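Entry:
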Amino acid sequence: MPPLRQLKSNKSADEDSDQVEHQNGASNGHHTNMEESPPQPTVLPPPAPSPLVDTVCKFGAQTFTTDQGLKLIQWSSWAISYLTSSSKHHKDTLSPALRKLYGEVSFTRYVLRFYGFFQSLEGYQSGSWAGGSWDNPKIAKIAKYLMAGSMLFYYPLEHVAYVGWQLPTLSKFSRVHANKISALSCVFWTTYIIGDFWASCLKWSELTKKLNDLGRLFAMKKHDDDREGLMQVEQEQHAVAKRIRLVKLQVIRCLLFILPSVNWSLPNWATNPLLGEWKLNGLMLVEAYVAAYQSLVGMRG
């Protein structure tokens, strides 16, 4: 952002000018009438948006959270469609309509992930997927090789499968071949989930140790009656506690992901799935809401 510039005060210059004019007027036997400048209108700051509007705007401003919003629509549509499939009033109207919406939103999310390869490449090169610096060097290595590295293979394979499904006449892959390529991509996704779970557990352990150290430091500051130090330690405790909460939610998401990822990694996932529909999609439904809640917690101070 450009630096702020501070305007110098013209008070001394104006006072000197007034004195000169007053002296000149007095020497000529005349009084100088100074015209007062009109009052400047008060500029009111724009009204702040409501917390709900502000949160929704922040949620939709990023591709990652936008995908989470679509994921909520996708799996919620499936859930309502599944629950109303046996209803006399909705099995021929609402249920199939929401089933169609569920499928369309699913493929829309494929399109949003077209940039995933380059994001993975950036994470592999910079190590940014570790989420900051950590004392345990394993976290950075896991984030680079298991997480970002696996996604470098996942995204291209997923895109090939998508083309096979959506453009079968233009591609050399039949739907059966596309299903097999999708299964192979999910093997790398499963690798990512295992790495994410491992790294999250290591982060949880390190942050817990740091929070305990801050607790001991807080007791020392309280014993010394260091109020300024107490306030600083409390802020650090709040920040670390929030990070622990986010890591816990990430661990829960990994546990919800692992069975569906294994299911979709099997070659015959489309014809003989490991999990039934309600078990498979039910886990994905719960994960979608946990992910959205995690993002909202991260947005809050």
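The first helix runs from residue 11 to 27.
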